[in-house]
């Protein structure tokens, strides 16, 4: 194995190790989120995308080179197998074909696990954010429930106070209405008495008026008789003279 393929194989084993570490069930996503939020990751974040794309390009180049080698040694293997002049050439070609196939698997799986590793880190980060948001939402929901229960208790208390106040107000209104009814009855009684007294006074006034008219007529009659008597006495005196 050449140095480049040894490096690619080491990179593949490192990818497998990282994926297995990320998939450990006893490490929660929040812990990974704290690890990803270290300052050192923020410093290398500017180079991360470039490094990611560079590694992808290198792995694709190695993968295509391995495909080319496989096609090359697959075609030469049948030719060397049919030639009797080089008996060891077929085994040598098969060894190179095996190495090309091995390099193809190494580069292909390295490329695949690199993409999986990038996606896994993204999903862990998103899951940690969602869990954090879930915790915040649960806290807000609990606070909202506590506030709602408090408001419901206050509402029930206000309803009871309002009900008791309404009952007291009804009793007060009932007592006032009863008092008003009694006052109305008293006023009716007094009004009846006043009406009777007024009628009696009016009757007395009519009686006095009639008596006054009678006295006036009697006085006129007596005055007329007195005048007649004076005329008679004056005439008698005049005859005696």
Question: What does this protein look like?
Answer:
Helices cover 93% and strands 0% of the residues. It contains 4 helices and no strands. The protein has helices at 3-22, 29-36, 39-82, 89-240. The longest helix has 152 residues, at 89-240. It starts with a helix and ends with a helix. The mean pLDDT is 77.
Question: What's the topology here?
Answer:
Elements: H1 3-22, H2 29-36, H3 39-82, H4 89-240
Helix pairs in contact: 1-4, 2-4, 3-4
Short description:
The chain has 241 residues and is mostly helical. Helices cover 93% and strands 0% of the residues.
- Low-pLDDT stretches: none
Number of strands: 0
Percent of residues in β-strands: under 5%
Q: Round the Cα radius of gyration to an integer and report it.
A: 64 Å
Question: How would the global form be characterised?
Answer: rod-shaped
Q: What's the total helix number?
A: 4
Helix content: over 70%
Any descriptors?
241 residues, rod-shaped, mainly alpha
């Amino acid at each position: 194995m050449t140095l480049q393929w040894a490096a690619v194989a080491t990179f593949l084993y490192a990818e497998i190790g990282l994926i297995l570490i990320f998939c450990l069930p006893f490490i929660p996503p929040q812990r990974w989120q704290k690890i990803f939020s270290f300052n050192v990751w923020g410093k290398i974040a500017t180079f991360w995308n470039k490094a990611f794309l560079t590694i992808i390009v290198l792995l694709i180049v190695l993968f295509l080179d391995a495909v080319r080698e496989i096609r090359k040694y697959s075609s030469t293997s049948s030719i060397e197998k049919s030639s009797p002049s080089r008996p060891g050439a077929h085994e040598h070609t098969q060894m190179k074909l095996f190495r090309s196939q091995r390099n193809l698997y190494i580069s292909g799986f390295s490329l695949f696990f690199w993409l999986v590793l990038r996606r896994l880190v993204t999903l862990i980060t998103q899951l940690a954010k969602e869990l954090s948001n879930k915790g915040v939402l649960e806290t807000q929901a609990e606070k909202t429930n506590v506030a709602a229960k408090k408001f419901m208790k206050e509402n029930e208390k206000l309803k009871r106070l309002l009900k008791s106040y309404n009952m007291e107000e009804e009793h007060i209104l009932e007592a006032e209405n009863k008092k008003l009814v009694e006052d109305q009855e008293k006023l009716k009684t007094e009004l009846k008495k006043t009406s009777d007294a007024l009628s009696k006074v009016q009757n007395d006034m009519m009686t006095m008026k009639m008596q006054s008219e009678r006295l006036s007529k009697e006085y006129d009659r007596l005055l007329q008789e007195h005048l007649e008597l004076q005329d008679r006495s004056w005439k008698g005196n005049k005859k005696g003279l």
